[in-house]
Amino acid sequence: MNRILDKLALLLICVIGLFFSGSAAGPVIVLLCSVIASSSVQLLSGRRSAAVIAFLFAAACPVYPLFFCMLPVMLYDSLCEKKWWLCLPAFLVLFFTNTGITSLQYCLTAAGTAAALIIHMRISSLEKTVSNLTALRDKVTETNLQLSHQNSLLADAQDNEIRLATLRERNRIAREIHDNVGHMLTRSLLQSGALLIINKDEQLKEPLTSLRDTLDTAMTSIRESVHNLHDDSVDLKKLILESLSAAEGKFRTELEFDVSENIAGSIKFCIAGVVKESVSNAIKHSNGSELHVIVREHPVFYQLMIEDNGSCTEPVKESGIGLKNMKERAESSGGRITFTPSQDGFRVFMTIPKK
DSSP string covering 181-221, please? Predict the structure, then answer.
């Protein structure tokens, strides 16, 4: 739209010059041809045909000098096409004496040409400024996205540190309870049992029995609490990564882990044990180069898949110690495990239902 408005202003200057022509039909023909040529150049902007039209218009000026009065409009189009030299043939008119163009028309054409140059310089400056601002905006947007990503990574790292610190604290509390309270309760339980044996007073037998039962109940409760704390302090993902680290010299390992923290300790140890055994078997027997482990949590069950890309077509002998141990681990947690050898690799697939 700005280009059209600029050309209308230049066209006004050119039309004033055409009015000083001696004929009546010539200016109308030149005006119509110029408007058609300028509109075609703008419509075909960027194509070779646009350049051809501009060049033909400039070449027509020495043949029919009245076209020279419309030079500012076509010069502006040529400048917009980054091909100002297309209008050079039009200036051949200046070397002819009998062109029929008056001095006033030359002056108006010169003024229009200067105006076209000034307008184009202004537009080019504005376009450059807009381009610089766009590039700056894109750079700022990219920087903001990078900062957002870095902040997200920092937040995740901080959350992970807090979680690890919480797990370490739970483990420490469980160890303290086991080492201190558990030992004292065990000693108290033994002492109460010894007193019950050596006691000869029938009146004290029932209180001592009640004391022993209370201590035994407390010991059972403490043992369950310690086991729960210890199970909660186990980081399943860390255990799997430690198992995979043993295979990094032979395989390119990859882990997909999508499991919440609320998972029973027995299931954690089952999954970790199967992964460790599978990685050990892959190191010993697989001729592949990639090892992929997937641990996912579904609404009603947990899924584990361990797969390498080594060729394996021999039938699976589940009587082997390693495979037998994995099968027993899965069954102990109420799950199922399958072993699938193929030319594309060996796959271990296990599902454990949620309790």
Answer: IHHHHHHHHHHHHHHHHH---HHHHHHHHHHHHHHHHHHHH
